[in-house]
Specification:
Blueprint lengths: L1 E7 L2 H10 L5 E4 L3 E7 L2 E7 L12 E3 L2 H9 L17 E6 L7 E4 L9 H23 L4
């Protein structure tokens, strides 16, 4: 199970926001931390910034689960800037979420490494072009 960490200045305000606005179910809560279920295989841990030693590094972005997406669709005011692009635009969705007591949180999808298609598209272009000229040459009786 993957856990995303969020460090906020006001824990109680953030807990109410996440429960009431985002409608994420609360899994556990203590004086310094609260844990919410994002999806079946991931959780959101919200820590108070007053805690001296936070074990995990804060998340750079939150995954956009179906549960979170349905809450965001119902309330568009949760967005800070609906189309604010992020630096790593290949890994992040162009939306930022306004969280009280925290700077805006980027909603993201997991990075998927896909093979670069530049070389394959380049070679397929030339092979296609060669085939076109070969067909033309055969049709008109020319040699290549």
């Amino acid at each position: 199970m993957k856990t995303y960490s969020l460090i906020v200045r006001q824990l109680s305000e953030s807990i109410h926001y996440i429960q009431d606005q985002l409608r994420l179910p609360l899994v556990s809560q203590s004086a310094a931390c609260a844990e919410f279920e994002l999806a079946d295989d991931s959780r959101l841990a919200v820590y108070s910034s007053s805690v001296a030693n936070v074990a995990s590094r804060p998340a750079s972005c939150l995954p956009l689960s179906k549960r979170l997406l349905s809450a965001l669709e119902r309330n568009g005011g949760l967005f800070s800037r609906q189309f604010g692009m992020s630096a790593a635009r290949d890994c992040e969705l162009p939306v930022r979420l306004r969280v009280p007591g925290h700077s805006d949180v980027v909603l993201c999808r997991e990075c998927v490494t896909e093979p670069k298609t530049e070389n394959s598209s380049h070679s397929s272009f030339w092979s296609g072009l060669t085939k076109v000229f070969a067909d033309l040459a055969n049709h008109h009786g020319y040699r290549m």
